[in-house]
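Entry 0007
Protein: HTH cro/C1-type domain-containing protein
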Amino acid sequence: MPIIPRLDRVMADRKMSVNELSQRIDISPVNISRMRRGHIKAVRFSTMERICEVLQCQPGDLFEYVSPEPGTDEAVELDAIINRPIEEPARKPIGAVSRIPVNVAN
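Output (C-alpha cells):
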C-alpha cells in the first residue's frame, strides 16, 4: 500500500485519544480507528478539514506516499496505470450536421 496513514502519529503528538477526537469531530471511534489502520477507501474533504482543524495539522501530515519496491506486483501495477495510453473520446467534426430528420410543424 503506497499511501500510509499517519493519523496515529499526529494524534500521539497531540496526546489525543480516539474517543476525544471522535467526539470533537462527530465521527464514530470505529471510523477513526479504521482511518488510523488504513482500512478506508476514501475520506471526505469535510472530514479531513475537521480533523486538521482539531489536530492543528495539514492534510499532508495525515498521509504519506511511499513508492513501491521495484519489481513487486504493486510497482508493476502502478507502472501499467502510469503508462496506459490515454483514449480520446470520439468527437464530431466542427460544423457536423445531424442526419436525424426533424419534424417542423407550422
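Curator remark: The chain has a mean pLDDT of 85. Residues 3-65 form a domain with the 434 Repressor (Amino-terminal Domain) fold (CATH 1.10.260.40).
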